[in-house]
Amino acid sequence: RKSREGGSDRGIPDSVRKCQDCPFMCKSSATRLLYCTTGVLLRRLEGDTALQGVSHIIVDEVHERTEESDFLLLVLKDIVSQRPGLQVILMSATLNAELFSDYFNSCPVITIPGRTFPVDQFFLEDAIAVTRYVLQDGSPYMRSMKQISKEKLKARRNRTAFEEVEEDLRLSLHLQDQDSVKDAVPDQQLDFKQLLARYKGVSKSVIKTMSIMDFEKVNLELIEALLEWIVDGKHSYPPGAILVFLPGLAEIKMLYEQLQSNSLFNNRRSNRCVIHPLHSSLSSEEQQAVFVKPPAGVTKIIISTNIAETSITIDDVVYVIDSGKMKEKRYDASKGMESLEDTFVSQANALQRKGRAGRVASGVCFHLFTSHHYNHQLLKQQLPEIQRVPLEQLCLRIKILEMFSAHNLQSVFSRLIEPPHTDSLRASKIRLRDLGALTPDERLTPLGYHLASLPVDVRIGKLMLFGSIFRCLDPALTIAASLAFKSPFVSPWDKKEEANQKKLEFAFANSDYLALLQAYKGWQLSTKEGVRASYNYCRQNFLSGRVLQEMASLKRQFTELLSDIGFAREGLRAREIEKRAQGGDGVLDATGEEANSNAENPKLISAMLCAALYPNVVQVRHFDSPYLLYHEKIKTSRVFIRDCSMVSVYPLVLFGGGQVNVQLQRGEFVVSLDDGWIRFVAASHQVAELVKELRCELDQLLQDKIKNPSIDLCTCPRGSRIISTIVKLVTTQ
């Protein structure tokens, strides 16, 4: 579009550039407008803290409150104080303008009327009324008596002694209706009479259903009833696609299967509807299906997570059914664990969802929470990401920027628009010290400096550096690309078992990462045979071609970044690697045989994972080794660990960080790590001391290499001896 407006008939004009990978490398002397990600702009700031040559910065979708965007606002606020002429424009359709205006010293707010079509907005009470929905006895969406008692007790506990006295006085003096309640009290805590008083004008049958309904659950029965009402067409609204927002994949699958037993939706008698699930774990082919317009007389139903809230726009949507729930990642700093919590959407989310129905025509939106809940219980905005994620990468980013280098982390974080909890910052600093990236007085170590230069999670960055040092660079970059993006394995609805069996065919050495490498290698070979062969390989093995291509692109970008900091061949550029690639990603040929002399050593690759993922280790039974590394520990219905790899004790002791100890216990020499739960019995005292000494030598060697990346550890006598000993040790154990 900008190309057309710029009068160019040959693609993107020189005056306009789009940059999402390499910071400002795509800019030329003619560039007047540059589109880039927040991360790219932050990387430019590492070398140009004043943003010389930039007159205006437009930050779009600031309401999303990502970790990077909140930090960028702090940086821009500092720059504006130094460069008053720099114009910063913050944009969003659902912005809390007052919060941002106050943060930027009461800057002016401009409101531009939207161009979307009108959307009729309805709530739970309206949905129950139009569908005449009634809860049957034994329905899973009915509140139990135990739950009702619990809600009443909760309501009583939430009231202060003063509020109790105030309430009694009002009732005794007849200052208000006995059944009326304060707006702050949720609907879930009210009985039939109180709901009747709150929802004046709503029929008693609707109130009765509301009084026994469990508002915390996503009511799939009611969603099905709404879909029937829309598809039947006994209303005055025009035909069009229906977009249903659900919290996650489990709910999508449940509704999909439920609709298959309904003759209106399963197409066994007549072709009335086509149903498409939409979720980030689906293949790109499955996701693309939602954009296809159905034949006349057929209603398209899309069942989606919040991926359809802002990430994509489906033009023919007329109806939106908003379950009111979403899955949100939270981080518990005390446990070092992320959890996926089912939470209510914010008012801003609800408005975004409503807006999906008014893109190309007038629309209708049903929110499956009450109007009172919308006005009095929903948060205005979603909790900022910076308050619910680990902060290690941001800590490094702060330390590498010259404008903050002399400040302690707490003072910088306290100046953010909405700072994170101090416990979260404390846990991140401990984690960075354990990784060897930060000193106790908050200075970047040489390793920390390099990790800060890599725009990835610190663990992924460390894996890339160690892959370079131990000459298994290509597989390390493949694993890093998957961790930075997502797994290429897909699991279609109706072929879950078949997909799992195919994944097991790649299984190797009890490691998800080594299985990934096997699958990726197979894909690279298939690309050399042509597009059709690559497509067939992905289809037969339940792999996403789009994810594999994105991983290949990330590998090339990571290679360029390592080249820039001296950990790969000098002068490597992602675009050049792609041009020269004879099928596959081209990284192996570009980085050379020397950098990959250990690329086929699976035990060494597993050892590199210890360096990156420690202390993410659990003890297990029924494996050859009692230790499993994992990338992510997450709590849903239970606690799960994801992306695991079995590892033996020597790699843990050599690469795991922490202190190595040797103790004599009951006549045996025990080598242990940190507090002793990772341990093994050495054959002799001499072996135990050798392991400890080898670890000390390795630590010193790595420090030397990281301080001076030009050192080749495999050619200098001392380095060569230590590296070869370690490779032999982890390979033969």
TrEMBL record:
PROSITE patterns named in the record: DEAH_ATP_HELICASE (PS00690), HELICASE_ATP_BIND_1 (PS51192), HELICASE_CTER (PS51194)
One annotated GO biological process: positive regulation of translation
Alphabetized UniProt keyword annotations: ATP-binding, Coiled coil, Helicase, Hydrolase, Nucleotide-binding
The EC number(s) this enzyme carries: 3.6.4.13
Domain spans labelled Helicase C-terminal: 222-402
EC top class, as a word: hydrolase
Catalysed reactions, semicolon-separated: ATP + H2O = ADP + phosphate + H(+)
Gene3D superfamilies from the UniProt entry: 1.20.120.1080, P-loop containing nucleotide triphosphate hydrolases
Domain Helicase ATP-binding as annotated: residue spans: 27-113
Entries under Pfam families matching the protein: HA2_C (PF21010), Helicase_C (PF00271), OB_NTP_bind (PF07717), RNA_hel_CTD (PF26026), WHD_HA2 (PF04408)
GO molecular function annotation: ATP binding; hydrolase activity; RNA helicase activity
PANTHER family: ATP-DEPENDENT RNA HELICASE (PTHR18934), ATP-DEPENDENT RNA HELICASE DHX57-RELATED (PTHR18934:SF145)
Family named by the database record: Belongs to the DEAD box helicase family. DEAH subfamily.
Name recorded for this polypeptide: RNA helicase
Species assigned in the record: Homo sapiens (Human)
